[in-house]
Amino acid sequence: MQPIPETSPRFSNLQLELLRLYSRDLPEADLVEIKHLLARYFAEKLTRRADQFWEEKGWTDDTMEEFLRTKMRSSSPPQPQ
């Protein structure tokens, strides 16, 4: 097995780190659990960012209700380019 490089134009730093950590086969149950952990991590990170954005804009529950009632799509067909 070749050593895992420190940097790579093909892989992100996260991918390289995961390759180093898990350079052996895992049971399927462990793999599924790790996928769920990563998904939960990124979902929570996105939720925190969305909450921050919400606060920066000063939005309230009433703002969201207004968004839901507002038609934001154009009914006109796309223009040819």
- Shape assignment: elongated
Structural class: mainly alpha
The H/E string reads HHH
The low-confidence runs, each spanning 5 or more residues with pLDDT under 50, are none
Mean pLDDT: 86
- The helix fraction, in percent, is 55-70%
Helix count?
3
Rg calculated over all Cα atoms: 22 Å
> How many E strands?
0
Strand content: under 5%
Distance between the termini: 52 Å
User: In this structure, how is the largest beta sheet organized?
Assistant: none
Oligomer: single chain
What does this structure look like?
This protein is mainly alpha-helical and 81 residues long. 59% of the residues lie in helices and 0% in strands. The chain has three helices and no strands. The chain has helices at 13-21, 28-57, 61-69. The longest helix is centred in the middle third of the chain and has 30 residues, at 28-57.
Briefly summarize what is shown.
With 81 residues, the chain is mainly alpha-helical. Helix content is 59%, strand content 0%.
Give the helix/strand layout.
Elements: H1 13-21, H2 28-57, H3 61-69
From the structure above, extract its key features:
mainly alpha; 81 residues
